[in-house]
């Protein structure tokens, strides 16, 4: 049943995992989509998506699956987005809108924009929502509810296409924010990419500690587990993100190193007052997010 005046007759999702699958489910739940075609490489995952009612049709042929689509959502790992766009853009129908959900924007735009032709629009996007799980089975309809979705249009993005993609994310429950790709990449390096690097490092540092002949991770309780949930995220996704946003990420890693080095010095020299102030400032910033 349709409960919105926004409607996409034919939506193609390339990469029916957590992000692509959840968009399909959210739009279906809102009655905002007609047919959904799921395109991917792994047949087992596509069959699961069909069985779960995420998509109506599946194919491993990316050109055939996208040819008649009104909107194509690219939800593959970041390093595959350009390759997929190059394969499909020549055969998309006139007026088709391509958008993506990649976690990094400037490198994706640099790859995809030169491939465009006047009849096909591209709206770069990134839903700021996710979990540490992947694949179609991890998808759920409410993933984007009350989350932000950042769109990073360029001078070549048509206003009409931008509005359509904006409405698509709003229909999925998100608040849409528009900004430049470079600003997006710097903000995400700080708020998302750095925390993943820290979590992966922490688990490796603690997990390889071998002073005792036992696995000390088994002693982990709330603190360690809450902090490191994201270290269970897909390693190939995070390899791609690190490779495609290195400048902004290194800037944030260096900033983190400075804070950590100061903290270490204050611990070493027993500066209780400085430690208290550091923890207090951090607590206030963290408490204010909620
Ligand atoms: N997981 C998150 O928290 C999150 C949040 C926001 C954005 N993103 C971005 O969304 C994208 C997808 O992430 P995800 O978490 O849904 O991953 P996922 O692994 O759950 O899904 C990706 C899917 O793409 C398929 N795929 C890989 N290469 C392909 C190709 N060449 N052609 C077609 N299909 C291909 C995979 O088989 C998989 O089913 C990534 O670009 C990621 O950076 C992820
Ligand atoms: O909640 C998580 O598990 C996430 O990692 C989601 C998260 C994030 O860092 O917040 C991860 C990558 C994205 O591109 C967007 C969101």
Named once each, the bound ligands are: nicotinamide-adenine-dinucleotide, prephenic acid
The radius of gyration is 21 Å
The chain-level mean pLDDT equals 97
Listing every helix as H and every strand as E from the N terminus to the C terminus, the arrangement reads: EHEHEHEHEHEEEHEHHHHH
Strand order of the biggest β-sheet: 3-2-1-4-5-6
Approximate strand percentage: 5-15%
Helical run tally: 11
- The count of domains is 2
Give the termini separation. Answer: 35 Å
Transmembrane segments: 6-27
Organism: Geoalkalibacter ferrihydriticus DSM 17813
Keywords: Amino-acid biosynthesis, Aromatic amino acid biosynthesis, Membrane, NAD, Oxidoreductase, Transmembrane, Transmembrane helix, Tyrosine biosynthesis
Pathway: Amino-acid biosynthesis; L-tyrosine biosynthesis; (4-hydroxyphenyl)pyruvate from prephenate (NAD(+) route): step 1/1
């Amino acid at each position: 049943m349709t409960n919105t005046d926004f409607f996409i007759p034919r939506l193609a999702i390339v990469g029916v995992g957590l992000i692509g699958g959840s968009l399909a489910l959210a739009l279906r739940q809102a009655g905002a989509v007609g047919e959904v075609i799921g395109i991917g490489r792994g047949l087992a995952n596509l069959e699961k998506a069909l069985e779960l009612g995420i998509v109506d049709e599946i194919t491993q042929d990316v050109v055939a699956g996208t040819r008649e689509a009104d909107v194509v959502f690219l939800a593959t790992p970041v390093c595959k987005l350009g390759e997929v766009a190059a394969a499909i853009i020549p055969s998309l129908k006139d007026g088709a809108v391509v958008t993506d959900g990649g976690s990094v924007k400037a490198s994706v735009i640099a790859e995809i924009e030169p491939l465009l032709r006047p009849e096909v629009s591209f709206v770069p996007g990134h839903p700021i929502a996710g979990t540490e799980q992947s694949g179609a089975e991890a998808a759920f309809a409410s993933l984007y509810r009350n989350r932000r979705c950042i769109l990073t249009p360029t001078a070549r993005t048509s206003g009409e296409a931008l509005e359509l993609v904006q409405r698509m994310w709003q229909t999925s429950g998100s608040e849409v924010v528009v900004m430049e790709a470079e600003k997006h990449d710097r903000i995400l390096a700080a708020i998302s990419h750095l925390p993943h690097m820290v979590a992966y490092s922490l688990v490796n540092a603690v997990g390889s500690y071998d002073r005792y002949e036992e696995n000390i991770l088994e002693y982990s309780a709330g603190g360690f587990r809450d902090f490191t949930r994201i270290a269970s995220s897909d390693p190939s996704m995070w390899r791609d993100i690190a490779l495609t946003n290195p400048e902004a990420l290194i800037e944030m890693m260096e900033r983190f190193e400075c804070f950590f080095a100061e903290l270490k010095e204050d611990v070493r020299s027993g500066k209780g007052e400085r430690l208290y102030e550091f923890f207090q400032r951090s607590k206030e910033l963290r408490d204010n997010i909620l």
